What we know:
The complex is a heterodimer. By secondary structure, chain A is mainly β. Chain A folds into 2 domains: 43-166, Immunoglobulins (Immunoglobulin-like, Sandwich); 178-316, Immunoglobulin-like, CATH 2.60.40.2550. Chain A has helices at residues 2-5, 8-25; strands at residues 42-49, 56-59, 64-72, 77-85, 88-89, 93-94, 103-107, 112-119, 128-137, 156-158, 162-166, 178-180, 187-191, 202-204, 207-211, 217-219, 225-234, 238-246, 249-250, 259-264, 268-277, 286-295, 307-308, 312-316. In chain A, strands 12, 16, 18, 19, 20, 22, 23 and 24 form an 8-stranded mixed sheet that branches. In chain A, strands 2, 4, 5, 7, 9, 10 and 11 form a 7-stranded mixed sheet that branches. Chain A starts with a helix and ends with a strand. Chain B has one helix at residues 5-27, and strands at residues 33-40, 45-53, 59-68, 74-85, 91-102, 104-112, 119-128, 132-135, 138-143. Chain B folds into 2 domains: 1-28; 31-143, Immunoglobulin-like (Sandwich). In chain B, the strands form 2 sheets. In chain B, strands 4, 5, 7, 8 and 9 form a 5-stranded antiparallel sheet that branches. Chain B has a 4-stranded antiparallel sheet with strand order 1-2-3-6, with no helix packed on it. Chain B has 1 helix and 9 strands. By secondary structure, chain B is an alpha+beta fold. In chain B, strand 1 (33-40) and strand 2 (45-53) form a beta hairpin. Chains A and B meet through helix 2, strand 1 and strand 14 of A and helix 1, strand 1, strand 4, strand 5 and strand 6 of B. Strand 14 (202-204) of chain A pairs antiparallel with strand 5 of chain B, so a sheet runs across the interface.
Amino acid sequence: MKNRFKYLVPIIIVMLFICAFLNNKKEKPSDNIVLTQEIFASFTHGILDPDPEIRNLVYDGKNVTVQYNILNGEQDASFGLLIFTNGVLQPFCINDGSDTTMYRFNVLKNQSVTFPISFDPVQLNEKENTVYFLLMLDPDFYPEDKTQPFGHNHSISQLLPWKLVNNSAGSRTSKINIASIENFQQKQIEKSPPEFDQKDQKSDSPLELNINSECPIELNNNAKKISVPLNISSKINGKYRVSVFINHEPINAFDGCDYIDIDCDKDTNYKLTVNIDSSDLKDSNNFAYAIAVPVDYNFDGLDIQVAKSASVILINQ
Amino acid sequence: MTIKRSKVTSIVLTALLLMSVFAMPAFAWDYTGYASKSTSTSYGTLTGQFNLHADDPNYYYFEESGWVDSSQTFSSMYAEYSIHNYYSGARLDGKSAVAYNDNAVYFDDFIYKPSSPPFTIYGVVEVRHTTTYTVRPTLTGTYGGL
């Protein structure tokens, strides 16, 4: 018995060292670079009234009104609220104030805020319409260092789409010009390999949108405009209305139009070249992003969502 | 010297316990980067999580997952990541995924090592139901540039 267990303790000690060695051999996360910007952790938002289970708004000639709620998480945060009706940026007012296309507000950590939103639909089809509510994180963020990414700032969180039923007489089209992809010259359309997995209903996101450019984008004094590549990658068939924003305002990026309608085919990449005019820029702190909003939404089908590109810095030299 | 059987058993058990504590990060949590954020919802806790593995010499293997501790399913679960050059801020890559009528979403991706500069990863996990719940994990560090 004595001989049998004599070497047990040394063997165990050796094994412990082996395990510790294996553990130390793993590549450790290096955290010597620390973000200077605090990260928003979490929040909850939605419409309390009308019933969010039904997601139905009614326009009967008077302004549409909803009660919107935000419950903030563990950090103070600022937000910007945007609304799109049939893919067009919707002016709205809060607490009977003046019209805006982005309502900016601050919410303390763990604070709940509820406010009424009222709007007169900028676009109305005769029957069904689609309204998207988007919440943008820290819309006033601008990197102190031009090489710092926006990170979570300017990213959007969205509600499921709401149906807007038109009970008033007729339709309404705004004066907004909308281009179509068929007539847009500066484009390249490519088929990509299919990835959508119908079987388990899990897939890549239906649409991805990116401004593919060197960062930051520089516009020198002599140039009146700059061409910027906008890539749209679609995994499903669906119609989207795309707009480009400078400093949160839509610009005439598509042959003088604010929006372009793209009837996306499944597994197809659309590479557009959009023009940004120097007159759309301020002296400093300019940024751009693109937003694609589904139109002709099928409420009986899968939920198709709004896509936003990452914000990119524009420098007007 | 006589060693009793019970004493041997206790030594072995203690050693095994210590070994499991030392070895756990090496064998069970096999990643080089990890980030997680959680928030409470009226259905249960929503968690968004990253794992970045560096075992392959050519690629980082990246996983993002989001789930709600609930048997309830939701209209859609959404996850997204974007990877940015730490020094220039330029977006290098990204991916997103959506799961319908589910309580979890998951995807994985590969990041080519030799061409990757140091990067930061930003992620989003959202429950889109009657209300939208969101968490945003971030993975910071000098990953890449190997």
